[in-house]
Amino acid sequence: xxxxxxxxxxxxxxxxxxxxxxxxxxxxxxxxxxxxxxxxxxxxxxxxxxxxxxxxxxxxxxxxxxxxxxxxxxxxxxxxxxxxxxxxxxxxxxxxxxxxxxxxxxxxxxxxxxxxxxxxxxxxxxxxxxxxxxxxxxxxxxxxxxxxxxxxxxxxxxxxxxxxxxxxxxxxxxxxxxxxxxxxxxxxxxxxxxxxxxxxxxxxxxxxxxxxxxxxxxxxxxxxxxxxxxxxxxxxxxxxxxxxxxxxxxxxxxxxxxxxxxxxxxxxxxxxxxxxxxxxxxxxxxxxxxxxxxxxxxxxxxxxxxxxxxxxxxxxxxxxxxxxxxxxxxxxxxxxxxxxxxxxxxxxxxxxxxxxxxxxxxxxxxxxxxxxx
Amino acid sequence: xxxxxxxxxxxxxxxxxxxxxxxxxxxxxxxxxxxxxxxxxxxxxxxxxxxxxxxxxxxxxxxxxxxxxxxxxxxxxxxxxxxxxxxxxxxxxxxxxxxxxxxxxxxxxxxxxxxxxxxxxxxxxxxxxxxxxxxxxxxxxxxxxxxxxxxxxxxxxxxxxxxxxxxxxxxxxxxxxxxxxxxxxxxxxxxxxxxxxxxxxxxxxxxxxxxxxxxxxxxxxxxxxxxxxxxxxxxxxxxxxxxxxxxxxxxxxxxxxxxxxxxxxxxxxxxxxxxxxxxxxxxxxxxxxxxxxxxxxxxxxxxxxxxxxxxxxxxxxxxxxxxxxxxxxxxxxxxxxxxxxxxxxxxxxxxxxxxxxxxxxxxxxxxxxxxxx
Lengths: 373, 373
Ligand SMILES: NC(=O)c1ccc[n+]([C@@H]2O[C@H](COP(=O)([O-])OP(=O)(O)OC[C@H]3O[C@@H](n4cnc5c(N)ncnc54)[C@H](O)[C@@H]3O)[C@@H](O)[C@H]2O)c1
Ligand SMILES: NC(=O)c1ccc[n+]([C@@H]2O[C@H](COP(=O)([O-])OP(=O)(O)OC[C@H]3O[C@@H](n4cnc5c(N)ncnc54)[C@H](O)[C@@H]3O)[C@@H](O)[C@H]2O)c1
Ligand SMILES: [Zn+2]
Ligand SMILES: [Zn+2]
Prior knowledge:
2 copies of one chain form a homodimer.
Chain A: E1 9-16, E2 23-29, H1 35-42, E3 47-53, H2 54-69, E4 74-80, H3 89-101, E5 109-114, H4 116-128, E6 134-139, H5 142-148, E7 153-158, E8 161-168, E9 173-177, H6 186-203, H7 205-213, H8 215-219, H9 223-243, H10 259-269, H11 276-293, H12 299-311, H13 323-333, E10 340-348, E11 351-359, H14 360-368
Bound molecules: nicotinamide-adenine-dinucleotide (2 copies) and zinc ion (2 copies).
The site of one nicotinamide-adenine-dinucleotide has 30 residues of chain A, from α2, α4, α5 and β8.
């Protein structure tokens, strides 16, 4: 497929403005095979450490590697087992050592080919190998395309806490090929949609309407619609990140809409029971009901989210779990003061507000009200 | 001892100008016990992760910890075994986990109390824990006071390479108490002097003369003279670092004067045989002889370095080692092109020049000419 092939969809660029760390996200369909030309258009790369997981590698490692090689780039392929446990100190050590054994140096680049696990892990390797290598991302899950590949957070887990070791390390460029989502398991795909819905609720009522109007093509992974929702999601997240790159002003907190409930649900149900986006869906509805209880959000707006998330095949009911455990998980998630919790609460579709002083009992009512009736 | 105690030496400040990462190095004698007030004058610190090694901790952990606590700062004390092997992935993992277990969060600070090993290791923890914590350094070896605590390079070793994993992470402040050098073993102290001499040769002929004129007080660790040489060394390194913070323009390379030979000597003699500064002393003289051979440096200037280093108790003779091994170590140190090597070559005391095309045989003659006669 040549770049002028008329069957191709035009690719689209989202600029992420971060002063000297600014970069572009290039979004297309079928552009994976052009990664070599894309990367050399951004930087003169002679050696790439290409990091992937074994699921993704099966489908896409060779085309990406061949495309890089065709531009004269030497490629070190490093494949780790798929799944969250690879975001570890042990895997990092293995990658550092293997990259070094294959003659990595300060001019090498790191390319992440995979979902959020690979993006976070490879980004951490890029941030720390020889005190920082150029980093390129090719996100292959919907979650990674619309969320984890934007914002520069990279890192790994410790047994006692997720994402606790890491850096802010911006990529030099992100290439998104929405066609790779064809091979993504359905549950993973639907899970990614929850974050897409989130962007509509927190920032963009028109985008939310667009999603409501396009449920079927979204479920069909229609190329045109996918490109639109991925691009708009990246744009919205990039706006927020640009205003608060290192999470210091507090602005970036709005991206955590639904996430205090989500994290409590993930923790108490046991990691793995819910995919992240599934827990986000349940959590957003809790935060919506919380908005109602605080008198700032209308029940119709909760209803619209409920309807959209249901149509997209996402869970909406709160499962029956130990309520004391949920409360204490929420308390740990966001440092509490004097029995008050901090939440991102919606005021209307398109606008959320950080609300620092939510009484615990009200927060818990918004949880228990979500039990299946 | 109160801050107005007349027996105290005035403390002195060296500013390191790095735009929004600028900070001050505060240099004094007996100021260690004031670390609590110093740190709170810089940032509002409520929790400090204080990292040290078991040699240094024996003398200085309690005074530092008590001073921090007296300012209401909660202190997590983490002590690792003294020595280079602590600059490892395994020790990092241990420190990350222990800091986390003692409730580190994004508002915590890391304080390094020790030599270059502790500075590099603790700095790496600071750079990576919760994506970056405020970092404060209290260097306790001469090498750390004049060299490793300035410049923002932090990191750890892999079995196959030193300092290969790390970041650039600037401290918020550095506190130097030259009185702690009293307990430093003599060989460590002398070793640190080699880097001090280096600053004179590469940047400051008057400072070099000052060193020549003050050999005995330097050997006596005289407080006034120590403060002067530490402050001037920090100033000179800070100037270079400010012009090339992330080692991208090549300017920072002049700090490597003598270091290509030094690294070859360290590698081939086996790590641990020479202390770093000892190998620097031998290496600087090789680089000086190289300058002579290239016709840009005068034999008298080599002679002055030889005399000063000898007077300071540093080794000056090149040991008999496998010459092929030395050459190949130098080739690996600085990527060679077509049999040419890159060296920092002196043109006069106070000025060095990066010389990219030194023939290998000339480089080796400057080495073998240094054999004890
Ligand atoms: N850095 C950030 O800002 C950020 C934001 C959100 C989430 N995250 C992190 O992202 C991670 C979750 O990411 P994820 O949901 O992408 O999980 P993932 O990377 O584990 O991918 C999910 C599964 O899909 C497979 N897969 C990926 N792409 C595929 C494709 N195109 N075809 C077939 N299979 C494919 C993977 O092998 C894996 O089995 C978590 O570790 C989370 O902490 C990071
Ligand atoms: N980051 C940089 O820019 C940079 C520059 C140069 C060197 N380094 C690193 O620095 C390290 C070497 O540093 P170093 O020479 O300070 O070694 P070190 O930290 O191992 O200290 C040397 C010895 O002195 C002991 N010690 C330290 N202070 C003491 C005191 N006041 N009293 C008694 N004993 C004391 C230590 O416990 C240790 O046994 C190497 O790992 C090197 O890579 C880093
Ligand atoms: Zn999320
Ligand atoms: Zn040195």
